[in-house]
Amino acid sequence: MAVSENTPQKKQDIPAEQSGKPAALLRIPGTDYSIDPSAPLPQYSKPHARAFRAVKPESEKKLIAFLTGRPVMPRFKQFPVFKNFYAHNLQQYYESGTVYWPEDETTYYACIFEEPRGISAMNRETGEVRLQLGYETAGKPIVARFIEPAVNLLNELKKHNVTHGALNLNNIYMRKENNASVMFGECMTAPPAYEQSALFEPVGRALTDPVARGHATEKHDLYALGICTALIAQGKNPLAGAKRGEIIARKIDLGSFAAITGKERLSPGLSEFLRAVLHDELSSRWSLEDALRWLDGSRMTVKPARAAPKAARAFSFGEYKYSHLRSLVIALARNPNMTAQTLKDKKLLEWLGRNISDKHIIANFERHFGADKNPAENYDSSDLMVAHATIALDPESPIRFKTVSVMPHGFGTALAHAVLHGEDIKPYWEILQYQLYAYWFEMQFIHLPEAGSMTHEMEKARAFLKQKMIGRGFERCLYMLCKDAHCLSPMIKDAFIRNGADLLAVYEGLAASGKLPALDNFFDRHIIAFLIVHESQVIEPFVSMIASPQAGRKLTGLAHCFAAIQRKADGKAAPHLVAWFVRNIRPALDKIHDRQLRQRLFDRVQKLKDETHFDSLLDIIDDPEILHEDRRKFLAARAEFRALLQERVGLQRQLSGKQNMGMGTGRQAAMLVSLAMSLLVTALTVLTHFHIL
Is-contact 56 33, C-beta < 8 A? Predict the structure, then answer.
């Protein structure tokens, strides 16, 4: 029987590319789609995902496959949403699955989409804006052909509780022959905002590690849309060629609107929209409802966007002087040792009081670094001191601790990414231990609705981190905080396991190829924690059995787990895996006390070599009635044995004094004989006396 469809293809399963002949199509197991490795589509490739032609039998659709999963994890949890979502101006998602790539001998996760209609709106190499839509007094093409379709798309996504998070001109396509037809590219092959450059993100998120930005909100999508709109309206990118730090510095110095439009004269209507969606204060930025009302013609109030105020006197730090607080905070985060000394000598506190008018920031800062505080005594770590200071001075920016910059919303994804790539995860542990996420939420100027639930979730993860028992610990923390993470067990991480059915299919494939792990390491901590988080009902009742050092209990627990997965997966067959259990089942029968019964059960199990479901196996090795009756008889036999043992002990005690053995009985017999003789003599004497005889 063939290996299960969801099992990653092995190297030997795929015909190698032959010289002079086209490469064989690589089918994605479990789907009708295949990928043509000889047909790359570099114009659509992304830094995290190469693009190739995909095909489906008897289909004329032009399809594209993105190979992802190795550099970053896709948004696995959103796949079902997008599979059932259709919008004519969004790149349609069809299917996905694992595929083994012979060229580099690596397994990837392939995502199938319709091929984009046309070319990207920006040249990836030169930064040239290709999409040209003018803004006229009558007609307003950029509104009708770009802004309105984009806002409507974002609104439809919002109804499905998802956001895009990848709106940029490299991911927006237009027909070569018709500028008016625009398609928005996919957003699922990478974490939210991962592929967004600093140009398309607000300053706080631009300062964050791309993988750690967390889910985009509608306001973040609107900000990215505003940047795209400004570039299209100008027909150029005024920041082309600028590096990340330069873009951030310009946005801080001028504000996002002025940084991207410069001295360009825009029509009042378009300028109103751009000022509203590019507002650097999140609370003042338009929401989707505001944008929809504006499109309907309503007059909207736009709070004036102002650049961050400059200090009257610059603050000297290192070799530079800083007039903008945010620029200073960036420098503070990069030089923790120098920053620690600056915080201790109170010069920064004095400068803030004289040059910064924002009372909230000063109040935040004084909580730990006020005139009556002594950082040298209150902190035993300069890294923690700097993290607290940078959060207090710039609450909208990420948690900056040691080598990482993470938003609380993106903490789990960043942690999983570090594990995926074998990076140092100690900074993430310490962020949890120091509860920097809670401090970040405390410092925010506006209420974030998700603050309570996120803090609670991370507190649970922090508690699990301290527990060493199997099913807890670091692994439980990882999968609880990153629901998009596939199982990262070293044994099976290339299989991209996302649920119990996937796990069953992979183990079935390993059983078919004779490569199952040893029983002692059949399920490692990663697999157990992954299942507990994603499908607790199939494993949680059996964790103690699976973790048992006793081979029999472990086998029984594993069989129960696989049986529960099969029931949930509508009876998915696993003939090779069941056969392996049949061959190795003897330790699971050692709990049977009756040797004859144990042998009969073993013989019954051996007849299941062609069985495909674990329930049939469990009906024999873990039948409650059989176990109860066996135990009842065992307890009865044990009680009888104890009684016989006590009798034996008594006899042995008696035999130990054999020289006196029978003396008591003899005395009793002699006494009875003497009594009888006495009675007889007495009777004869009486009868003789009375002449009766």
Answer: yes
231 falls in which pLDDT band (50, 70, 90)? very high
Q: Would residue 286 be called left, alpha or beta, if left means φ above 0 and alpha means ψ between -120 and 50 degrees? A: beta
Q: Is a pLDDT exceeding 60 seen at residue 197?
A: yes
pTM above 0.70, yes or no: yes
**Which amino acid is located at 362 in the chain?**
I
Instruction: Give backbone dihedrals phi and psi of 543, rounded to 5 degrees, phi first.
Output: -60, -45
Measure the CA–CA gap between 347 and 349, rounded to whole angstroms.
Answer: 5
Q: Are 442 and 368 contacting, i.e. CB atoms less than 8 angstroms apart?
A: no
- For residue 557, give every residue at least 6 positions away whose Cβ sits within 8 Å of its Cβ, in sequence order, or none: 542, 543, 544, 545, 546, 548
Query: Given a cut of 70, is residue 661 above it in pLDDT?
Result: no
Report the Cα 502 to chain-centroid distance in Å: 16
DSSP letter (8 states) at residue 34: E
| Number of Cβ within a 10 Å radius of residue 532 | 21
What radius of gyration do the chain's Cα atoms show?
Answer: 38
Residues 6+ apart with CB under 8 A from 125: none
Separation CA 436–CA 411 (nearest Å): 11
Give the span between the Cα atoms of 187 and 164, in whole angstroms. Answer: 6
- Residue 207 contacts residue 405 (beta carbons within 8 Å): yes
Query: Average model confidence (pLDDT) for the chain?
Result: 89
CA 491, distance to chain mean position in Å, is 17
Cα 87 to the center of its chain, rounded Å? 28
At 249-284, the pLDDT tens digits run 999 999 999 999 988 888 888 999 999 999 999 989
| Separation CA 8–CA 295 (nearest Å) | 48
User: What is the C-alpha to C-alpha distance for residues 450 and 340, in angstroms, rounded to an integer?
Assistant: 32
Torsion of CA 103, 107, 108, 112, to 10 degrees: 80
Average pLDDT over residues 332-342: 92
Q: What is the pLDDT of residue 691?
A: 64
Kindly state the DSSP code that residue 630 receives in the 8-state scheme.
H
CA count, 13 A, side-chain hemisphere, 420: 22
Number of H helices, E strands in the chain: 30, 13
Residue type, 548: S
- Token pair of 502 as six digits: 């996937």
CA distances, 377 to each of 67, 344, 435, 613 (Å) = 52, 10, 19, 64
Q: How far apart are CA 568 and CA 595, in angstroms?
A: 35
Distance CA 183, CA 192 (A): 19
Look at strands 178-184 and 172-175 and give their pairing: antiparallel
Tell whether the model's pLDDT for residue 622 goes beyond 60: yes
Q: Are residues 575 and 581 in contact, defined by beta-carbon separation less than 8 angstroms?
A: no
Do 106 and 37 touch, CB atoms closer than 8 A?
no
**DSSP character string of 354-396:** HH---HHHHHHHHHHHSTT--HHHH-S-HHHHHHHHHHHH-TT
* Per-residue model confidence as pLDDT tens digits over 456-481: 999 999 999 989 899 999 999 999 99
Q: For tokens 């059960």, what's the residue?
A: 601
Tens digit of each residue's pLDDT (9 = 90 or more) over 123-140: 888 888 888 776 554 457
